[in-house]
Automatic annotation (TrEMBL):
InterPro entries: AB_hydrolase_1 (IPR000073), AB_hydrolase_4_sf (IPR050960), AB_hydrolase_fold (IPR029058), ABHD4 (IPR012020)
A GO MF term: short-chain carboxylesterase activity
Active site: 216 (charge relay system), 346 (charge relay system), 375 (charge relay system)
Similarity-based family: Belongs to the AB hydrolase superfamily. AB hydrolase 4 family.
Organism: Pseudocohnilembus persalinus
Coiled coil: 271-298
Alphabetic keyword roster: Coiled coil
UniProt cross-references to Gene3D superfamilies, sorted A to Z: alpha/beta hydrolase
Protein name (record): AB hydrolase-1 domain-containing protein
Domain of life: Eukaryota
Domain AB hydrolase-1 as annotated: residue spans: 138-381
Length: 413
C-alpha cells in the first residue's frame, strides 16, 4: 500500500504545473468513461441477445404442434428484450411511468350482479376494416390486482385486440375504475362475478365466439374459471399472461428482496382504491367493526388483507383464502385451449410457482416461458413494443379460424 502511494505522489510531482496534471487526469477520465460506455453497451446488447429462445412445455399433441407452427411469433421461438431495460424493475418503471399510453375511446356499460353490486365493462371501438356483425368474435380482457381498463397495459392489450379484428371489452371488477354500487368487494375464491359477466356478454352477442385474455391476477381468475367450469366454459380459448398460479406462494415471494418493492406498490394501490370507494364501504366497515385507520396504515398486502379483506369476507385464515383463490388447484380440469406466457425473471410470479407437471399432463395448455420480460411488460426492440400481445393475438386468431373452419365443414356435411 505504501509503495502504491509513493508511486502515485511521484507521478504527481513529475508534472511541472497543476494544469498539466489536470489535462492528464481529464484525458484519463474521458478514456475510462469511453471504455465504460462501450463495455456497458456491449454488455447490455449481449444480455438482450443471450438466452432469447422461447421454452415450451406442453403435451406434444398434433393440435398443439400445429398451433405453434401456425403462430409466427411462437414458431420463430425468440423474444429479445429491449437492451436498456435489462432488469425487471426497469421494465416495470418504464411500463408504468414512461411508456406512452394509447388513446382508446371506450364505451362503458354496467353488469348488475345478483347481490346488488355491479361490474363495469369498457368496450373498445371496432376497427374500420371489419364489419360490425353479431357473430364478430369477442375478446374479453381482465386486469390484475391493480389497474383497470384505463391502465397502460390494458390499453395496449385492447389495442391489439382492435388491430386483430376482435370486438374487445375490458372487465373492471367491483370498485375498479368506477364507484361501487354497494359495499361488497370481490371475493377471489369465487368465480360468480366472472360467470355472470361472461353470461351477460354471451347474451348480448349470442352468435359470437368468446375469447379471454387474463393479465396477472386476471389470468389466475380466468384460468380458475375455466378449470371449474370444465366443458361448460363459455370461452372458446384464453391467453394467460404473467399468471400467479399460486397466490399464497406469490404472497410469500413478495415479502422479501425485489418483491418487497412490488408489495408496497400493490398495497398503495389497494389503499387508494379503498379511499375512492369509502362512502360505499362505510356501512360494511361499521357492521364488521373494521378500523379504517389500520387499513390506511397498512404496509403490505397481508397487512391490508388482515385488517380489511379478512373481516369483510368473514375469513378465518388469510393464508387459506390465498390458497383457495389459486388457479393451480384446477389446472388439470381445464378443457379449453390455453396459451400461458411467463417470464423467468418475473419478480411477482416466479417460475417456481408454475404447476408444470399438471400443465404437461393437460393437452389443452401450452406454456411458453421467456428468459426476460419482467411482470406483464415484455418490452422488445429499441421502440419498446410490448411483444407479449403479438403471440397472444396470433394464438387466439388461429384457434378462432380453426373453429370457424370446423363449423363450416360440419354445416356442409
Amino acid at each position: 500500500m505504501r509503495k502504491f502511494f509513493t508511486k502515485y505522489i511521484d507521478q504527481i510531482k513529475s508534472f511541472k504545473n497543476p494544469s498539466q496534471y489536470y489535462v492528464y487526469r481529464t484525458k484519463n477520465f474521458k478514456k475510462r468513461l469511453m471504455y465504460t460506455v462501450l463495455f456497458g453497451n456491449a454488455f447490455l446488447i449481449y444480455q438482450s441477445r443471450y438466452n432469447t429462445d422461447l421454452i415450451f412445455n406442453f403435451a406434444p399433441t398434433e393440435q398443439n404442434i400445429e398451433i405453434i407452427k401456425n403462430c409466427e411469433k411462437l414458431n420463430k421461438g425468440v423474444y429479445r428484450a429491449t437492451f436498456f431495460l435489462f432488469h425487471p424493475l426497469l421494465m416495470s418503471i418504464f411500463g408504468a411511468k414512461i411508456d406512452p399510453s394509447p388513446y382508446i375511446r371506450y364505451q362503458r356499460e354496467f353488469v348488475d350482479l345478483k347481490d346488488g353490486g355491479h361490474i363495469s365493462l369498457d368496450w373498445a371501438p371496432i376497427h374500420n376494416r371489419y364489419e360490425d356483425e353479431d357473430n364478430m368474435r369477442v375478446l374479453i380482457i381482465l386486469h390484475g390486482l391493480t389497474g383497470g381498463a384505463h391502465s397502460n397495459y390494458m390499453k395496449h392489450a385492447a389495442l391489439n385486440g382492435y388491430r386483430f379484428g376482435f370486438r374487445t371489452v375490458c372487465i373492471n371488477l367491483r370498485g375498479i375504475d368506477s364507484p361501487m354500487k354497494n359495499g361488497n368487494i370481490t371475493d377471489y375464491r369465487s368465480s360468480a362475478d366472472l360467470e355472470q359477466t361472461i353470461e351477460f356478454i354471451q347474451k348480448k352477442y349470442p352468435n359470437a365466439n368468446l375469447y379471454g385474455m387474463g393479465i396477472s391476477m386476471g389470468a389466475n381468475l380466468l384460468t380458475k374459471l375455466a378449470g371449474e367450469q370444465k366443458e361448460n366454459c363459455k370461452l372458446k380459448a384464453l391467453v394467460s399472461i404473467s399468471n400467479p398460479w399460486d397466490v399464497y406462494g406469490c404472497e410469500q415471494v413478495l415479502k422479501n428482496g425485489l418483491g418487497f418493492i412490488y408489495n408496497r406498490n400493490i398495497t398503495s394501490n389497494f389503499i387508494r382504491n379503498f379511499k375512492r370507494n369509502y362512502n360505499e364501504l362505510k356501512e360494511n366497515l361499521e357492521k364488521h367493526n373494521i378500523d379504517e385507520q389500520q387499513i390506511i396504515n397498512a404496509k403490505n398486502m397481508i397487512d391490508f388483507d388482515e385488517h380489511f379483506t379478512k373481516k369483510l369476507l368473514d375469513i378465518d385464515d388469510i393464508s387459506e383464502y390465498y390458497k383457495q383463490s389459486s388457479c393451480k388447484n384446477v389446472v388439470k380440469d381445464v378443457k379449453i385451449p390455453i396459451l400461458a406466457i411467463q417470464a423467468n425473471d418475473d419478480p411477482v410470479c416466479p417460475p417456481k410457482l408454475i404447476p408444470k407437471e399438471d400443465i404437461m399432463k393437460n393437452e389443452n395448455i401450452i406454456l411458453v416461458t421467456t428468459e426476460k420480460g419482467g411482470h406483464i411488460d415484455y418490452f422488445s426492440g429499441y421502440k419498446t413494443k410490448r411483444w407479449v400481445y403479438w403471440p397472444a393475438m396470433e394464438y387466439l386468431n388461429y384457434v378462432d379460424k380453426q373453429l370457424v373452419t370446423t363449423k363450416q365443414i360440419e354445416s356442409v356435411d
